Amino acid sequence: MTPPEAPALAAGTLPPAASSCAGAPELQVLRKRSQFLAAARADKQGTASMLIQGRPRHDGSDHVGVGFTCSKKVGNAVARNRAKRRMREAARLSLPGMARPGWDYVLIGKPRATADRPFPALISDLRYALKTLHARA
């Protein structure tokens, strides 16, 4: 049961950022292996803290799909989960204003970098990667 002050969210969606843009596309979490594999065939942009894969979908939907992953190279389960939490929060703050409707994005954590990088730099890396991916599309 959710506390009364917490908004109820649909399964597989991320909560909106406090400063999200009106009319911004809805973020949906990628959960199926096939979605991650399709993004792996897409364009990639590396940054100091993470690797971003992005691709437009051709199914006509306007939602933005976002997935997060870290390999065992990042560390043990605690380190991988910390890195994914940081990427999730960066995506929650950055994607509503920068993501293109109908695109899927996968954020991949890097060893030591994703968990240790200052959070403002992590957000800056994500925004840079999104601008670069969209410029090439």
TrEMBL record:
<keyword id="KW-0378">Hydrolase</keyword>
<dbReference type="InterPro" id="IPR000100">
    <property type="entry name" value="RNase_P"/>
</dbReference>
<dbReference type="InterPro" id="IPR014721">
    <property type="entry name" value="Ribsml_uS5_D2-typ_fold_subgr"/>
</dbReference>
<dbReference type="InterPro" id="IPR020539">
    <property type="entry name" value="RNase_P_CS"/>
</dbReference>
<keyword id="KW-0540">Nuclease</keyword>
<comment type="function">
    <text>RNaseP catalyzes the removal of the 5'-leader sequence from pre-tRNA to produce the mature 5'-terminus. It can also cleave other RNA substrates such as 4.5S RNA. The protein component plays an auxiliary but essential role in vivo by binding to the 5'-leader sequence and broadening the substrate specificity of the ribozyme.</text>
</comment>
<keyword id="KW-0694">RNA-binding</keyword>
<comment type="subunit">
    <text>Consists of a catalytic RNA component (M1 or rnpB) and a protein subunit.</text>
</comment>
<dbReference type="InterPro" id="IPR020568">
    <property type="entry name" value="Ribosomal_Su5_D2-typ_SF"/>
</dbReference>
<keyword id="KW-0255">Endonuclease</keyword>
<protein>
    <recommendedName>
        <fullName>Ribonuclease P protein component</fullName>
        <ecNumber>3.1.26.5</ecNumber>
    </recommendedName>
</protein>
<dbReference type="GO" id="GO:0004526">
    <property type="term" value="F:ribonuclease P activity"/>
</dbReference>
<dbReference type="Pfam" id="PF00825">
    <property type="entry name" value="Ribonuclease_P"/>
</dbReference>
<keyword id="KW-0819">tRNA processing</keyword>
<comment type="similarity">
    <text>Belongs to the RnpA family.</text>
</comment>
